[in-house]
Amino acid sequence: IAGITQAPTSQILAAGRRMTLRCTQDMRHNAMYWYRQDLGLGLRLIHYSNTAGTTGKGEVPDGYSVSRANTDDFPLTLASAVPSQTSVYFCASRDREADTQYFGPGTRLTVL
Amino acid sequence: AQSVTQLGSHVSVSEGALVLLRCNYSSSVPPYLFWYVQYPNQGLQLLLKYTSAATLVKGINGFEAEFKKSETSFHLTKPSAHMSDAAEYFCAAILTGGGNKLTFGTGTQLKVEL
Known about the structure:
The complex is a heterodimer.
Chain A: E1 4-7, E2 10-13, E3 19-25, E4 31-38, E5 42-49, E6 56-57, E7 64-66, E8 76-78, E9 87-95, E10 100-103, E11 107-111
Chain B: E1 3-7, E2 10-14, E3 19-26, E4 32-38, E5 44-50, E6 56-58, E7 64-68, E8 73-78, E9 87-94, E10 102-104, E11 108-113
Parallel strand pairs in B: 2-11
Antiparallel strand pairs in B: 1-3, 3-8, 4-5, 4-9, 6-7, 7-8, 9-10, 9-11
């Protein structure tokens, strides 16, 4: 693989259920990010990680958690999904030398 | 508060016409600026970026953007629109004090008509 992969591509989830969105990159970038995209709001940062073993909160972190056990993987967990978490979720990683973020293809999540 | 503003959530142009998508930033220090494009059901793809070198930046697919400090703007242009340019375009910035995190505008949907 080359770049960033996300899984699943889409998911319909019952409210109250736990869900983990997966993100893997093979570019050995230290920094990774999770965004949600909502109509009229653009992309908003949920959580980020500057390097393996560290994480930080973004603009809209409530209801979400992340972990960064290694460089390649950055899963996003919804502990108890609510309908307002219906969105398209994008994972990104940052090329430090180019100072540019690269995005995965996204996960479309619907919470009913 | 520092922010990125895109004027016009929807822009419609005729094929062959000039494309102009507007982006303004609010920051005391000129930030790094980016334009991303998103085609339907896909992720974001980098079009071009400004990182304090040349103020006129050329990107992929014939797009370019000019950084104007006096106007705090970074508008995206293309001389002649093509049907394949129809997509959503996002302006983003690394703002002062934001670490390396991107702040996005709300996006502009570009429609290209025959």
